[in-house]
Amino acid sequence: MNLRQLEILRAIVRYNTTVAAGRVLGLSQPAISNALKTMEEQVGFSLFQRSNNRIFPTEETKILLNEAETIFEIHKRIEMRIEDLKNNRIGQLRLVATPPLGYGVVAKAIQQIQKKKPNLKAFFDVHRYEDVIEYILSHRSEIGFVMGFAEHPGIVSQVVYKGHMVCVMPPEHPLMKLSVVTPQDLVRHRFIALEHGTKLGDALRHAFRQSKQDLHFAVEVRYGLTACALANAGVGVAVVDPLTADSSQYSLAQRPFIPEISVMASVVWAENRSLTRVSRQFIREVENIVHDR
Question: What is the pTM of this model?
Answer without folding.
Answer: 0.67
